[in-house]
Design goal:
single chain; 292 residues; alpha/beta; 6-stranded mixed sheet
Length: 292
């Protein structure tokens, strides 16, 4: 048995004694058929691997072979049976075995179908098809019951030679798909709750926005770029004010950038204009000479 299953499904097998419950339980596990009837003393469970059609997902199927009244080994130790265990808890599908040669086994199956929830997929196994000449329940009654109960699927089988096993295994599709549907419904509810929370959050954020506060914060941020010392002093005086590590930045505000340092490269000398050069030449021409 592998581990790490994505899906786990529980199938309950019930019916009157000597109708093939344990033979079905063994057959689904690919165990050999037992010719001699041995009364099952108590509830027994096992697991098999199953996959839905061509899916890569392997489903763990828990099989419950249920007896209505167990055979205790001693008076001090209670026996696990339908009277002491809630066998339908977390159940996904039910298989009911019956022998149409004994009417009470058919009536047992009918009573179980009628008392189970209508959303339970149920397979009613008409076992012992190799003894049809001994059937007491007419097929018209059986088929009429099936039409009146849409969740009950009739499967003709003979567990002795394996007739009907394909239909038995295909029945697993019904509880599996129902389980998937219920999981998707729960996921849908979870997503709806998250969506409603996100809508409320957006409305709260939009309501708390104040343009005047934003403009004031923007002006303070720009002033801080021009005078980082004053900005640091203001942040120290008001730790939770705009621009501080603990403050929230209004939506759409630009991130403050540090002021660019001034260049230290000296500017090139300015070239004198033509008018200035002419004046200088004229002055030099008319300047009086000095006689020694």
């Amino acid at each position: 048995m592998r581990t790490g299953y994505r899906f786990t499904m529980k199938i309950v097998i019930r019916g009157e004694r000597n109708t093939g419950k344990t033979q079905l339980y063994n057959k689904l596990q690919d165990l050999p058929f037992q010719d001699e009837y041995v009364q099952t003393p108590s509830l027994q469970c096992s697991s098999i691997d199953w996959s839905y059609r061509n899916s890569d997902d392997i489903v763990k199927v828990d099989l419950w072979d249920v007896v209505d009244k167990g055979i205790p080994k001693s008076e001090q130790i209670p026996v696990a049976d339908a009277s002491t265990v809630d066998v339908y808890k977390n159940c996904h599908g039910v298989m009911l075995t019956c022998d149409l040669a004994r009417r009470q086994t058919w009536e047992y199956a009918v009573n179980e179908v009628e008392r189970l929830p209508t959303n339970y997929p149920i397979a009613v196994l008409l076992n012992y098809q190799d003894h049809q000449e001994q059937f007491e329940v007419p097929l018209t009654e059986v088929e009429g019951f099936s039409l009146a109960h849409r969740n009950a699927i009739l499967i003709r089988c003979c567990l002795k030679d394996g007739f009907g096993m394909q239909g038995l295994r295909s029945f697993f599709n019904l509880p599996f798909l129902l389980m998937r549907y219920q999981l998707l419904e729960q996921e849908k509810l979870n997503l709806q709750s998250e969506f409603d929370h996100a809508v409320s959050e957006c409305r709260i954020v939009s309501t708390e926005q104040n343009y005047a506060d934003f403009v004031r914060w923007l002006a303070e941020s720009r002033a801080g770029r021009r005078n980082p010392t004053a900005m640091a002093a203001a942040a120290a005086a008001n730790p939770v004010g705009p621009g501080s590590p603990g403050a929230s930045i209004p939506l759409g505000a630009a991130t403050p950038q540090p002021a660019m340092p001034s260049s230290t490269t000296p500017a090139p000398p300015r070239r004198p204009s033509s008018a200035t050069a002419a004046t200088a030449t004229a002055t030099a021409t008319t300047a009086p000479s000095v006689t020694a």
